[in-house]
Amino acid sequence: MRKEFEIQGCIEVPPEVTEDEFWNTFIGFVESKGWSFGGGIREIQDGYYILADGSRGRRVLDE
Amino acid sequence: MRKEFEIQGCIEVPPEVTEDEFWNTFIGFVESKGWSFGGGIREIQDGYYILADGSRGRRVLDE
Fold first, then answer.
1. A2 interfaces chain B, CB cutoff of 8 Å
2. Which of A6, A11, A12, A57 would bridge A49 by S-S if both were Cys, CB 3.0 to 4.6 A apart?
3. Tell me, what's the pLDDT at B60?
């Protein structure tokens, strides 16, 4: 039997935590348990998605 | 500035890991970093959501 837990939510971090740091810490945790993650993360600043080029995208709540 | 990372994905675990164990481990990790999580998790077995009463719900891919 294949078991997974779907996660939909947000983790709030201090402003100085970069996306790379967050990703490496999160994946490090998952792998330290022998688990695996499939999916993605998106950075949000003050309620707006941050695009790959660092610019501000749309508001999260406008989805 | 408020910074969050939105997570949308699945973590695959061994079949013996219960939802309570997963939740406690996941939240323990988040809190150990001084971060906080807002959102939810759903259990999936063999591609089907598992309902609160333990029965099998709809297929994940039918969403």
1. yes
2. A57
3. 94
What residues does each domain of chain B span?
1-63
Q: How far apart are the first and last CA of chain A?
A: 35
The helix (H) or strand (E) run that includes residue B55 is none
Q: Is A28 in the B-facing interface, judged by CB distances under 8 Å?
A: no
Determine contact: B17 vs chain A, CB below 8 A: yes
Q: Residue A58 — φ and ψ, nearest 5°?
A: -80, 165
Contacting residues of B for A43, CB less than 8 Å apart? 3-6
Which pLDDT score, from 0 to 100, does residue A63 have? 57
Q: What pLDDT was estimated at residue B14?
A: 98
